[in-house]
Design brief:
With 419 residues, this protein is an alpha/beta fold. Helices cover 47% and strands 16% of the residues. The strands form two sheets. The chain has a six-stranded mixed beta sheet. Strands 1-2-4-3-5 form a five-stranded mixed beta sheet. The structure holds nicotinamide-adenine-dinucleotide.
C-alpha cells in the first residue's frame, strides 16, 4: 500500500532493509522510518514562447520532520517521478544525519527536459513551481537547493518568487543561490570539492600520492567538473570523461583545462574532440585509480561492478550503484575502496547548511572559513564511517547508512509518534 514505486525507490527500500536487519530494527518500526512523511504533487502551467500553454508535473517529498526542517535539492529532468524523488529524499535523510546536520531529507523535481526550454520558459517554470510549493515550504519547514538540471539562477528565481509573496526578501528559503543574492562563497564548488577531499583522505589511507594517479569521471555538470578541477590541481591525470552528449578517453591524459573551458562555453562536452571519442558504456570499466560517477542513478549494476578496474569508487552522484552491484563490491572489498554516495557528495548539503545559517544570521563568512568548516565536517563523518566499518565488519555504504538511520531512529524514539 504505497504510492512510491520504480527502480530508484526500490533501491532505497532494499538498502534500508539491509540496514534495518543489521540494526535489528523491529518490523513494526520500519515503515515509519522508511516511508516519507509528506508528498506534494502539483501541476505547473506555463506559457511557452509560441503562446501555447504547457503543463508540467512537479513533486516535493519531505521524508521526516524529526530533526528540524527538511532539506533537499530540486531536479529538472525527464526521469523525475514520485518514486525517484522519494528515494532521493530518503537518501538525503541518512546523509544529513551522517553529517550531523539538523535536517530531515527532502527532494523535489519537475518532469521536464530543461534543455528543451528557452531561458524565458525555464524562468516561467521555475517561478511557477515555487509558487505552487509556497504553502508547503519555508525557512523553518523545508529548504530547497539545486540538483540535476537546476542551478544558481533557478535558485534565485525560487527565492525571488517566495520573497515577492512574503513581501520581503527571504534569502534563507533556498540554498545554492548566487553569492550576489544571499548565497555563500563555496557552495557552487562544495559537492565536487568535498568528493575530492574524501578521495584525498582515502588515498592517504592507501598510502598513495594523488599526483600521477589516474581518474575517470562520468558527468561533467556542477559536481563532475568541480571534482575534476580539484583533482587536476593535485596532479591527478584525468584519462576519461563523459556527459550525456559525449565520451572521451585517452590513457595518456586529457587536457582538463581545455575541457573545463569548453564545457563552460558550450554547456556540454560534445564538440571537444573527434579523435578521443569513446564508447560511453565501456568508460566506467576502464583501468584507473579513481572512478567518479557524477551523473545519474543505477549506472553500476552487478555486471559493471564485476568488471570495474578502479582502486577507489567515489560516488559523487546519488544512487549510482545498485544493491546487486553492492553484493559484488562487497566481495571485492579488498580491491575497491567505495566512498558511498551519502558520504561522498555530502559536501553540497553541508555548505547549503552553512548558507542557511549565514542567511538566518545575516552574517557572512569568507571562502576559507566555509571550506575549512566543510572539511572538518566531512572528515568527522569519514572517520565515523571507518570506525563503524571496523567495529561491525560491514561495507562502507552499510556503515554510513547505519549511522544515519540510527540517528533518525533514536530521535524518533525519544520524541514520540508525531514527527
Ligand atoms: P548537473 O545537471 O549540473 O550535471 C549533470 C551531468 O550529468 C551533466 O554533465 C550531464 O550531461 C551528465 N549526464 C546526464 N546523464 C548522463 C548519462 N547518462 N551519462 C553520462 N553523463 C550524463 O547535475 P549535478 O548537480 O552535477 O548533479 C550530478 C549528480 O550529483 C546527481 O546525481 C545529483 O543528485 C548529485 N548531487 C548533486 C549535488 C549538487 O550540489 N549539485 C549535491 C549532491 C549530489
Amino acid at each position: 500500500m504505497t504510492i512510491y514505486s520504480g527502480p530508484v525507490f526500490e533501491m532505497a527500500r532494499q538498502q534500508f532493509q539491509v540496514i534495518a536487519d543489521h540494526l535489528e530494527i523491529p518490523r513494526d518500526e520500519r515503515d515509519r522510518l522508511l516511508y516519507p512523511k509528506r508528498a506534494v504533487v502539483v501541476s505547473c502551467p506555463i506559457h511557452l514562447d509560441d503562446g501555447k500553454l504547457a503543463v508540467f508535473q512537479g513533486y516535493r517529498v519531505q521524508h521526516h520532520l524529526t530533526l528540524g526542517p527538511t532539506k533537499g535539492g530540486t531536479r529538472f529532468a525527464l526521469s523525475v517521478d514520485i518514486g525517484e524523488v522519494a528515494a532521493l529524499a530518503i537518501w538525503m535523510s541518512w546523509k544529513c544525519a551522517l553529517a550531523g546536520l539538523p535536517y530531515g531529507g527532502a527532494k523535489g523535481g519537475v518532469t521536464v527536459d530543461p534543455r528543451a526550454l528557452s531561458p524565458r520558459e525555464l524562468e516561467n517554470l521555475s517561478r511557477r513551481y515555487m509558487q505552487e510549493m509556497i504553502p508547503f515550504v519555508g525557512p523553518h519547514t523545508d529548504v530547497m537547493a539545486p540538483d540535476m538540471g537546476t542551478n544558481e539562477q533557478v535558485m534565485a528565481w525560487f527565492m525571488d518568487t517566495y520573497s515577492m509573496y512574503q513581501g520581503r526578501t527571504v534569502t534563507e528559503i533556498v540554498t545554492g543561490k548566487p553569492v550576489a543574492s544571499g548565497g555563500t562563497e563555496g557552495r557552487r564548488e562544495a559537492t565536487g570539492r568535498g568528493a575530492a577531499f574524501l578521495i584525498g583522505r582515502v588515498l592517504e589511507r592507501l598510502k598513495t600520492q594523488p599526483a600521477g594517479t589516474t581518474a575517470i569521471v562520468q558527468g561533467f555538470g556542477n559536481v563532475g567538473s568541480h571534482t575534476v578541477e580539484t583533482l587536476a590541481n593535485w596532479g591527478v591525470k584525468l584519462i576519461g570523461v563523459s556527459d550525456h552528449t559525449a565520451c572521451y578517453f585517452d590513457p595518456r591524459g586529457l587536457d582538463t583545462e581545455a575541457l573545463l573551458k569548453h564545457a563552460q562555453k558550450h554547456g556540454v562536452l560534445a564538440g571537444f574532440s573527434n579523435q578521443l571519442s569513446f564508447d560511453a558504456r565501456e568508460l566506467l570499466v576502464q583501468k584507473c585509480d579513481i572512478l567518479v560517477p557524477a551523473a545519474v542513478e543505477r549506472v553500476i549494476d552487478a555486471s559493471v561492478a564485476a568488471r570495474l578496474q578502479c582502486r577507489v569508487l567515489a560516488e559523487a552522484a546519488n544512487g549510482p550503484t545498485t544493491p546487486d552491484a553492492d553484493e559484488v563490491l562487497d566481495r571485492r572489498r579488498d580491491e575497491i575502496f567505495v566512498i558511498p554516495d551519502i558520504l561522498c557528495n555530502a559536501g553540497g548539503v553541508v555548505v547549503s547548511y552553512f548558507e542557511w545559517v549565514q542567511d538566518l544570521q545575516q552574517f557572512f563568512w569568507d571562502e576559507a572559513e566555509v571550506m575549512s568548516k566543510l572539511y572538518h565536517v566531512l572528515d568527522r563523518a569519514f572517520m565515523q564511517v571507518m570506525r563503524r566499518v571496523e567495529h561491525d565488519g560491514i561495507s562502507h555504504r552499510n556503515a554510513a547508512m547505519a549511522i544515519g538511520v540510527e540517528k533518525v531512529r533514536s530521535a524518533k524514539n525519544t520524541r514520540g509518534l508525531f514527527p
